[in-house]
Automatic annotation (TrEMBL):
NCBIfam families: galE (TIGR01179). Homodimer. Belongs to the NAD(P)-dependent epimerase/dehydratase family. Its EC number is 5.1.3.2. Pathway: Carbohydrate metabolism; galactose metabolism. The keyword Isomerase applies. Keywords: Carbohydrate metabolism, Isomerase, NAD. Its cofactor is NAD(+). This is UDP-glucose 4-epimerase. Pfam families: GDP_Man_Dehyd. InterPro entries: NAD(P)-bd_dom, NAD(P)-bd_dom_sf, UDP_G4E. Residues 4-325 form the NAD(P)-binding domain. It comes from Mesonia sediminis.
Length: 344
């Protein structure tokens, strides 16, 4: 069965491609390499001993998208990761984000309708909940006014898919609302490749530990949490990749799957920034240089998932611990450093 993975050379996409290939799906990747590297394809091939097809294509070009589907009439499902994801950049360049995250979605859905292609998985985000009133957060929690254009593209993206699913009775879609993905493949052959200064906690920690950054700023120690630092639900990217495959199988195999469904994908456990630092230090033996600084604008105090729906209805549950995720992130950072040294 042939599955199109857009953004399949990106962080979450590449781990999902590995998962699919190892489960005997045929995979074709679209990526424009705007936030990824061709070397990731080599990593995927070396882990799986398989070579997925790759098309370097910008999904903002509807004619190219059309042409692509003309050339690949046997695609049976689409997992749509391709998007821009930097929250801060989205505030500075909102049109870029609306164009890249929404036009691409619309062009894909148009093509899927034209071809009567009905299985679609969308990368959504826990950002749609903002600061939820109740913790843990279940899927019925209200979607809050978005803090950023990026967050808004996820909310609008979900609305577009929901409306489209209502109008096309055959069409089935699942939106996965990821909490905080971290970690890397245990082989350390693929992982997160932040361009420039990382905005997310774990790549900043690993880059600090390896000596690329001076110190980590802990954004805020005056939250209403046990240690004063903010709480998130950090999910190993391997678990996240598996969730995509399970969701895809639900769409393809289960005749009863609803037209449009939303699932939280997290561990159900909240960890504070200080806890993440302490666990990182413990499992790697690397002391981390950090300082407590003021809150980062737009950050919420605490967010972690109620995963009951995914556990019961998808039959999926996160298996990996924070410790495992941080060990894999560190192995990946060391591998990157090694590769950089060899290039010099
Ligand atoms: P990523 O940037 O690593 O991967 C996205 C990939 O899409 C990149 O390889 C990029 O080159 C490609 N791409 C972007 N625009 C494209 C276009 N117009 N045409 C073709 N390819 C294009 O990001 P990621 O962390 O793997 O995230 C994947 C998805 O999950 C995104 O939709 C993101 O918004 C969502 N998400 C990510 C997180 C997170 O923390 N990483 C959390 C929640 C949701
Ligand atoms: C985690 C915690 C920071 C960096 C973001 C997006 C969200 C989603 C996931 C896509 C927070 C603290 C961080 C640092 C720190 N992405 N921190 N020092 O903000 O929960 O979510 O990524 O959909 O939309 O907003 O993740 O990793 O940036 O931060 O203290 O240098 O670490 O304040 O409490 P966040 P993050």
């Amino acid at each position: 069965m042939k599955i199109l993975v857009t953004g399949g050379l990106g962080y979450i996409g590449s781990h999902t491609v590995v998962q699919l290939l190892q489960n005997n799906y045929e995979v074709i990747i679209i990526d424009n390499l705007s936030n990824s590297s061709f070397t990731t394809l080599e990593g995927i091939c070396s882990i799986t001993n398989k070579s997925p097809k790759f098309s370097r294509l910008d999904l903002r070009n509807p004619l190219k998208v059309q042409q692509f589907f003309d050339e690949h009439p046997d695609i049976q499902g689409v997992i749509h990761f391709a998007a821009s994801k930097a929250v801060g950049e989205s505030v500075e360049k909102p049109l870029l984000y609306y164009e890249n995250n929404l036009n691409t979605l619309i062009f894909l859905l148009q093509e899927m309708r034209r071809r009567n292609l009905n299985n679609f998985i969308f990368s959504s985000s826990c950002t749609v909940y903002g600061q939820a009133d109740l913790l843990p957060i279940d899927e019925n929690a209200p979607v809050k006014t978005a803090e950023s254009p990026y967050g808004n593209t996820k909310q609008i993206g979900e609305e577009i898919i929901k409306d489209f699913s209502k109008s096309e009775k055959q069409f089935k879609a699942i939106a996965l609302r990821y909490f905080n993905p971290i970690g890397a493949h245990p082989s350390a052959r693929i992982g997160e490749l932040p361009m420039g200064i990382p905005q997310n906690l774990v790549p900043f920690i690993t880059q600090t530990a390896i000596g690329k950054r001076d110190k980590l700023s802990v954004f805020g120690d005056d939250y209403q949490t046990a240690d004063g630092t903010a709480i998130r639900d950090y999910i190993h990217v391997m678990d996240l990749a598996e969730a995509h495959m399970v969701a895809l199988e639900r769409l393809i195999k289960e005749k009863q799957a609803k037209n449009y469904e939303v699932f939280n994908i997290g561990t159900g456990k909240g960890s504070s920034v200080m806890e993440v630092i302490k666990v990182f230090e413990k499992v790697t033996g690397e002391p981390l240089n950090y300082e407590l600084t003021s809150r980062r604008p737009g950050d919420v105090e605490a967010a972690f998932a109620d995963t009951t729906k995914a556990n019961q209805e998808l039959g999926w549950k996160a298996k990996h611990s924070l410790e495992e995720a941080l060990i894999s992130a560190w192995a990946w950072e060391k591998r990157l450093a090694e590769a950089e040294k060899n290039e010099i």
